[in-house]
Amino acid sequence: MIEALINGVRPGDLGHALAAADRGLHYGDGLFETMLLAQGRVPLLEAHLQRLMLGCARLSLSCPGLALLRHEIQQVCGDASDGVVKLMLTRGVGGRGYAPAAAPSITRMIALYPPAAPQPFELKLGWCSTRLGRNTQLAGVKHLSRLEQVLAQMDIATTGVDEGLMLDSAGELISAVSSNVFLVRDRALLTPDLRHCGVRGVMRGQVLRIASEAGITVHEGALRTEDVRSAEEVFLTNAVHGLRAVVALDEQRWEVGPTTLRLHAELQHQIGKAG
Amino acid sequence: MIEALINGVRPGDLGHALAAADRGLHYGDGLFETMLLAQGRVPLLEAHLQRLMLGCARLSLSCPGLALLRHEIQQVCGDASDGVVKLMLTRGVGGRGYAPAAAPSITRMIALYPPAAPQPFELKLGWCSTRLGRNTQLAGVKHLSRLEQVLAQMDIATTGVDEGLMLDSAGELISAVSSNVFLVRDRALLTPDLRHCGVRGVMRGQVLRIASEAGITVHEGALRTEDVRSAEEVFLTNAVHGLRAVVALDEQRWEVGPTTLRLHAELQHQIGKAG
């Protein structure tokens, strides 16, 4: 973390910045967005803010004004050209116990991180043994209770793969640990509908929109491991690394296919370096 | 929070006590214990520390020495007679991304809270609409990713009930929001086995042990809503409030039964005020 604004204030010491009683810490009671800063701008800022608002509605968390958030993001980025911006909202300082205060004072933290280590365009994947629990209220939301993702990332830490695919507790394909997943089969684009769990990624939304505009048939639905095995192309998306092709999963190999390349080119065209 | 020790140090300002980059905040990546302080002692301290160690093993988190934790709990409690002690461990300060550092420096926080508001011995319950996601790795563990419990508590906030019962995503009975649940039927004690989710409560463990010693048949297994409906007695347990009888759930009513009273008396005898 290079620097941060917490409730609009630059803390004197990032090591002593947050209240010991913050509900984000005690209960994972909050939301976050991870955004790319590229050439001095955040290309998908409005889409991130829209998802944040949807998450606030889902958690009954009162969302700070978007103009304030935009302003503070600019403040934190300052003259920086490239990096990653993390925006976090929590249900503020609370007492002991799960029940929130009637009108909690939301904690907001906006932090700038160095640019992410570059990822290859061609990714090797493995399967995580950790499964995602199903919770329709939290499905799609980028919330702070992310221990499943931590365990999943540890599953693949020493395997040499670039990313790990995750199933939910009922065996449906959901996503990679930090990315959404897309399959191509019979010229159609398939992606999990995330009705039970997973994060509805901002870059996922961009790809779905671009694919529709390009006349590609899109199916959001329930997918399983056999759908991955029978896919002609596989790719991942997230806000920091854009769209990347999957070329290997365990023993299976894929070429980088035409739909992947076409969507990647269109994304780069539309949002610049984010692709 | 009355006061706290963070990594052995009393922070000058509880409002600026924690690192902005702590993984407990960013990912719910940690564990906690909530312990009763009664008449100057923590009656189930060793059982709490044992569960904490099991949780550390499950999350691959290196557990601080128990002698250090015991000492710091004593320090925080000081001369206080009654209250609630919360012990929290997180995977420390980290960079961006789910992958933990190779040898993270664990954050430990031990905090003293005022005594809990007294609960009646006879509880009225409702059902929470929020379901618990299944994750066998996290089942039983008291970890920091607790947004499901926050939402569940909000489900019942305005309903006037004392506690809410929760099912998992597959419809199995798991627990109440902050308590474990027991049923009595045909003189046997039934409780969810928590193989998919839920917290393996310290007071639950005490009750199971006491019931076995008293010659009561105990079944830990899969229970459903119809098991609650056909139960002759229902009671809840947690470390702060001990054992409490359930006398109402929606339209159903129970008397406080003999097994509930017997186990409650035996608990009080064994652990003093915790019952």
Q: What is the multimeric organization of the chains shown?
A: homodimer
Low-confidence stretches of chain A: none
**Count of individual beta strands of chain A:** 13
Total number of helices of chain A: 7
Strand and helix order of chain A: EHEHHEEEHEEEEHEHEEEH
| Largest interface: chains, residues each | A-B, 68 and 68 residues
- Summarize the biggest pleated sheet of chain A: 9 strands, mixed
How large a portion of the residues of chain A is in β-strands, by DSSP E? 25-35%
Which secondary-structure class do the elements of chain A indicate? alpha+beta
Relative helix content of chain A: 25-40%
Mean pLDDT of chain A: 96
Using only C-alpha atoms, the radius of gyration of chain A works out to 19 Å
Distance between the termini of chain A: 23 Å
Shape of chain A: globular
Brief account:
Two copies of one chain form a homodimer. With 275 residues, chain A is an alpha+beta fold.
Structure overview:
2 copies of one chain form a homodimer. The first copy, chain A, is α+β, with helices and mostly antiparallel strands and 275 residues long. Helix content of chain A is 26%, strand content 27%. Chain A has helices spanning 23-27, 45-59, 66-77, 147-155, 202-213, 225-229, 258-271, and strands spanning 3-6, 30-37, 83-90, 107-113, 122-127, 163-167, 173-176, 180-185, 188-192, 218-221, 233-238, 242-249, 252-253. In chain A, the strands form 2 sheets. In chain A, strands 5, 6, 7, 8, 9, 10, 11, 12 and 13 form a 9-stranded mixed β-sheet that branches. In chain A, strands 1-4-3-2 form a 4-stranded antiparallel β-sheet. In chain A, β12 and β13 form a beta hairpin. The longest helix of chain A is centred in the N-terminal third of the chain and has 15 residues, at 45-59. The first copy, chain A, starts with a strand and ends with a helix. At the A-B interface, α1, β3, β4 and α4 of A face α1, β3, β4 and α4 of B.
